[in-house]
């Protein structure tokens, strides 16, 4: 058994020795390879190191070159700034030298002026002495002191200046009057020509025509109950007399007369006339008339192109149709005045729409819903202010009879156009007695002045001729007299339009040949 195992062991040992030998051989080869790799890595590291050093050195050189360029540029700028400073310093030195030279010249001129002033002062003293001596000699020769002579000279100059000034003023006033009158007449005539309005005359009574006199008995009713009911419902006096086919409705308020007329017309047409029916018809007519008044106001404002009025003002304008002033229909007068105002405002370069608005509203105080103690112009201004009209419109309404001060150019236009509409021929009617009394008052007012010998009111009271005594009043006083009479007429009398005052002074020389 042992003999058999020995060869096996020897064989195993041989294999082991072979394996170990092979290992040592492989280990020696790996070691040499690793050394070679390390040597190659070290060589590459040296190459990389050299490359990096070269890159760093190149960047350093580039940076250094840039810094050197910046330093050179800054040095150049500093040199330029230093050069400019030196030039400025040179200019300042030159300017300082020039200022010093001018100062020396000024000092020399001043010294020369001082010398001249001293010479002039000496001459002035000599002149004052000569003047004093001459004044003393003149006072001794004339027997007047210097103050007295000066006063006489001043007085003579004053009189001469007054005469020249009066002459100059008269020339200017005459020229202004000629020019102003010509221009004013042109504007007024053109305004009147461009506005044509029909003339309407109304009374305080309305005549109601009926077909037969039998209807009068039905209107009166049994024991007069129908006519009493009608008068109580309308506030109108109904006069039934012997006039054939006519009944007279008498009332100061035109609206009431119109209500009574329309109610009578419906009652007569319907044929049913009794107190209950009368009250029903009158109430219905009042409502219809109120609607018609508003419609008239709206139509008037549309026709005239006046917009934005308060509804109450539109109603007041409609009521004007049933109101008259001196026989002139108030609505027609307001329309005419509005158109005149627009034309005149256009001629004068003002706003025609505002002027037309003021002209339409100027007499709204004549148709109040409630009685007022204020004059119609002031009451109209209060109404306009109440309904938010503009201040210049309100002032034009209140100032058209000079009861408040005029503060806008609309006021005189409204005043003039109101006078044109009221004073044109046929526009208004006066009672004969009042007309004659006004003419007599005009003449008596002028006769109250001293020196007046005769007075004549002509042209329907629109001109007053005043004849004065030549021995009592001179030419200058006649101008003052005409102005005084005009002012007194304006303050104390009421008249349509304007009154022209002409003062006549006549000198007559009479001799007889025998």
Estimated helix fraction = 55-70%
Q: Profile the largest sheet.
A: 3 strands, antiparallel
Discrete helix count = 14
The number of strands is 8
Secondary-structure-based class equals mainly alpha
Task: Explain the overall architecture.
- With 514 residues, the chain is mostly helical.
- The chain has a 3-stranded antiparallel beta sheet, with helices on one face. Strands 6-7-8 form a 3-stranded mixed beta sheet, covered by helices on one side. Strands 4-5 form a two-stranded antiparallel sheet.
- Helix 9 packs across helix 11.
- The longest helix is centred in the first third of the chain and has 141 residues.
- It is flat and about 200 Å long.
- The protein starts with a helix and ends in an 8-residue tail after the last strand.
- About 1% of the residues have low confidence.
Keywords:
514 residues; mainly alpha; three-stranded antiparallel β-sheet; three-stranded mixed β-sheet; 14 helices; flat
């Amino acid at each position: 058994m042992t003999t058999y195992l020995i060869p096996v062991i020897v064989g195993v040992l041989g294999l082991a020795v072979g394996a170990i030998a092979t290992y040592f051989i492989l280990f020696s080869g790996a070691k040499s390879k690793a050394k070679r790799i390390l040597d190659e890595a070290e060589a590459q590291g040296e190459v990389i190191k050299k490359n990096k050093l070269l890159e760093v050195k190149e960047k350093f050189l580039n940076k250094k070159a840039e810094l050197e360029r910046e330093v050179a540029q800054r040095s150049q700028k500093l040199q330029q700034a230093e050069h400019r400073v030196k030039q400025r310093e040179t200019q300042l030195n030159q300017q300082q030298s020039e200022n010093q030279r001018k100062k020396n010249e000024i000092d020399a001129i001043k010294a020369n002026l001082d010398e001249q002033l001293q010479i002039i002062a000496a001459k002035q003293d000599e002149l004052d002495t000569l003047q004093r001596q001459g004044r003393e000699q003149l006072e001794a020769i004339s027997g007047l002191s210097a103050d007295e002579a000066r006063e006489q000279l001043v007085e003579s100059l004053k009189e001469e200046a007054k005469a020249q000034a009066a002459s100059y003023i008269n020339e200017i006033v005459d020229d202004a009057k000629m020019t102003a009158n010509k221009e004013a007449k042109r504007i007024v005539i053109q305004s009147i020509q461009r506005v044509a309005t029909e003339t309407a005359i109304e009374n305080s009574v309305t005549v109601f025509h009926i077909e037969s006199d039998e209807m009068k008995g039905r209107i009166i009713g049994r024991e007069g109950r129908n006519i009493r009911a009608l008068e109580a419902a309308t506030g109108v006096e109904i006069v039934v007399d012997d006039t054939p086919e006519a009944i007279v409705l008498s009332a100061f308020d035109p609206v009431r007369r119109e209500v009574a007329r329309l109610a009578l017309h419906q009652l007569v047409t319907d044929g049913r006339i009794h107190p209950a029916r009368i009250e029903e018809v009158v109430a219905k007519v009042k409502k219809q008339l109120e609607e018609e008044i508003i419609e008239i106001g709206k139509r008037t404002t549309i026709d005239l192109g006046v917009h934005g009025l308060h509804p109450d003002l539109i109603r007041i304008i409609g009521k004007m149709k049933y109101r008259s002033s001196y026989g002139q229909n108030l609505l027609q007068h307001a329309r005419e005045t509005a158109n005149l105002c627009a034309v005149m405002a256009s001629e004068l370069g003002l706003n025609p729409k505002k002027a037309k608005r003021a002209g339409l509203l100027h007499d709204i105080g004549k148709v109040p819903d409630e009685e007022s103690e204020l004059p119609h112009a002031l009451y109209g201004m209060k109404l306009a202010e109440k309904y938010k009209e503009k201040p210049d419109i309100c002032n034009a309404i209140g100032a058209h009879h000079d009861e408040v001060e005029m503060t806008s150019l609309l006021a005189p236009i409204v005043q003039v156009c109101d006078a044109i509409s009221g004073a044109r021929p046929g526009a208004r009617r006066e009672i004969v007695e009042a007309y004659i009394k006004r003419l007599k008052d005009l003449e008596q007012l002028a006769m109250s002045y001293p020196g007046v010998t005769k007075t004549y009111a002509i042209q329907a009271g629109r001109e007053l001729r005043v004849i004065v005594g030549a021995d009592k009043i001179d030419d200058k006083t006649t101008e003052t007299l005409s102005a005084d009479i005009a002012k007194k007429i304006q303050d104390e009398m009421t008249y349509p339009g304007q009154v022209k005052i002409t003062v006549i002074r006549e000198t007559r020389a009479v001799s007889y040949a025998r």
